[in-house]
Design brief:
Number of strands: 11
Distance between the termini: 51 Å
Largest sheet: 9 strands, mixed
Oligomer: single chain
Shape: elongated
Strand content: 15-25%
């Protein structure tokens, strides 16, 4: 099985040796390791070149002439991979020796497009942190297409995908992230979106990496929020937020509509189904956004809620709905004429 490893590096001298050493110990060696280096100096590059001389698999390191930034640098690394599968790799983590071998088993099923695994959250010195909790990785098991939360925030460092997802749907002109206006989807959000639209996703309980948290993480774990904080966040979401999500969903539908015509018939069929899924989701979110406008009368709001309910819009989120909590919030906003811009 040809698994490429894609690493986006930037000033990695502090931790990258430990990550590279863990890659060298893999019981299933990678097909190749591709590193795109965004560093302004040669420190990271020199470490990687030295590493390449003592391993049996190919190591390619490409220094960027101009800094691309974390997300675009990762997409560049992915675009240079030639294996059938791509493992996303951060420069500061440590993999268990059997990570690639364990993940490879799941791809025996040709319908599996993405595999994600659990991790141990550790500090800079690799000591397990008190907040090493499974709540950050909420999926477990095998999921059919379009049966997961479409807005799930995936941790890319724990992910392996089929390279074909980048061939079926062009990633260059990506929709904006719904909670990060002005910026296109990151490599891991894109992988989740396309892979869970076109095939199965497998979530392993195995903790196959030490996810290092330190003072210079590009991304990291979000703090655990209690129920009060979650309720406060939900209450604060209003017209702007739902309109942004709706626009993002419609943009996703447009991307899936452009699926490669040479793709297998099953992929084209699933893309068509997913296009309809995201179109309906986007339309529902835009209708919901209007509920929270101060200009929308109570009677109009009531009609919108009834229409959304009749259309099945308040089904569970993994089934393409808005969820029962959304229904309760919308009813409350209608009865008390709550407006949230």
């Amino acid at each position: 099985m040809k698994i490429s490893i894609a690493m986006a590096a930037y000033k990695g001298e502090r931790f990258i040796r430990e990550q590279l050493d863990s890659i060298a110990r893999q019981t299933l060696p990678p097909f190749e390791l591709v590193i795109t280096d965004d560093s302004p100096d040669s420190g990271t590059h020199d470490i990687v070149v030295e590493f390449s001389r003592r391993v049996s698999f190919p190591v390619r390191v490409v220094r960027n002439e101009q800094r691309l930034g974390f997300h675009e640098n990762f997409f560049k690394a992915i675009s240079l991979c030639r294996g059938d599968f791509i493992a996303f790799c951060d420069q500061d983590d440590v993999w268990t020796d059997d990570k690639l071998e364990r993940v490879a088993r799941e791809f025996v099923d040709p319908e599996v497009m993405l595999v994600v695994h659990a991790v141990k959250v550790v500090d800079a010195d690799l000591n397990v942190r008190p907040d090493n909790t499974a709540s950050h990785w909420s999926h477990r098991g095998v999921y059919d297409p379009l049966t997961t939360n479409p807005w799930y925030v995936l941790f890319g460092m724990s992910t392996v995908v089929r390279r074909s997802i980048y061939e079926y749907v062009d990633w260059h002109d990506r929709p904006e992230h719904p909670v990060d206006p002005g910026f296109p989807m990151s490599h891991d959000t894109w992988a989740w979106f396309v892979a869970t639209s076109l095939g199965k996703m497998v979530a392993l309980e195995d903790q196959l990496a030490l996810y290092r948290q330190h003072d210079a993480n590009s991304c990291g774990i979000s703090p655990d929020r209690d129920m009060g904080e979650k309720v406060a966040m939900a209450k604060a979401a209003g017209q702007t937020h739902y309109r942004r999500m709706g626009t993002s969903a419609l943009a996703r539908a447009d991307k899936l509509r452009q699926v490669l015509q040479e793709a297998p018939a099953q992929i084209r069929h699933r893309a068509a189904v997913a296009t309809d899924y995201y179109r309906k989701l986007g339309e529902r979110l835009l209708r919901r956004a209007n509920l929270y406008s101060a200009a929308t009368a109570r009677v109009s709001r009531a009609g919108t809620v009834v229409g959304l309910l009749a259309s099945g819009a308040y089904r569970p989120v993994p089934k393409g709905g808005l969820g029962h909590r959304a229904f309760l919030k919308d009813v409350h906003a209608t009865v008390f004429h709550v407006s949230i811009e």
